[in-house]
Amino acid sequence: MARRGTRGGSTTRTRHTDPHALTYVSIIVPEVVIALSTLVLFASTFGIINDATGMRLQLGIPTIIAAQMLFDISIVLLLVATGLFLMTTIGIGLFISTVASTQQQAMMTAFFFFFPAVLLSGFMFPIANMPVPVQWLTIVNPLRYFLIIIRGIFLKGVGVSVLWPELLALFILGIITLTVSTRAFRKTLS
Question: From CA 187, how far away is CA 25, in angstroms rounded?
């Protein structure tokens, strides 16, 4: 409950915590959250789960068949690359939510992280045209590698033999972000 008072013409706010007003959230191990979100992603991709209205999701297998017919792409490579990219972004999101104390702080931190990540990914501006220090900064941007993989799969039709450095970079970034965010999350629990 907040109480307002005036002191020297300014408004001050004192906070009193009510133990009964706290919201309790069940604690779930981060690995379980990541596994469940990955399962939902792949289940929705293949049309296994239903949406809230009970109608079958229409983006599943027909979309994969159409993509295979329209583009000569490797669906398995695309799903593996998407899973690796999601692993890195889930790790970054988990770290931001662990560090932030409020939802507004988490949203602002995510905005100030992901907006420059999009600008520095090579999506809007070529990385080769950026200053050299900024080019070095883009090495830790997972979106950079994912865009190279997407362009390679859809535009060039290349496979793992060409895209393995980017896949390896996404895997390493994913392991690092998930490890750091999991350790930070466990520290906040204790």
Answer: 17
Q: Tokens standing for 176?
A: 């690092």
Task: For residue 154, give every residue at least 6 positions away whose Cβ sits within 8 Å of its Cβ, in sequence order, or none.
Answer: 71, 73
For residues 170 and 79, the answer to whether their CB atoms sit within 8 Å is no
Nearest to 116 by CA among 100, 138, 132, 99: 138
Q: Give the total residue count for the chain.
A: 190
Nearest to 163 by CA among 80, 90, 89: 80
- pLDDT score recorded for residue 131: 92
- Between 142 and 4, the more confident residue is 142
Q: What angle do CA 123, 130, 140 make, to 5 degrees?
A: 65
Burial 110-121 (b: 16+ CB within 10 A, else e): eeeeeeebebbb
Q: Work out the mean pLDDT of the chain and round it to a whole number.
A: 74
- Confidence class for position 129, pLDDT limits 50, 70, 90: very high
Give residues with Cβ within 8 angstroms of 66, minimum separation 6: none
pTM greater than the 0.70 cutoff: no
Distance CA 140, CA 117 (A): 9
Break the chain into its structural domains and give their ranges. 28-189
Mean pLDDT of 97-112: 89
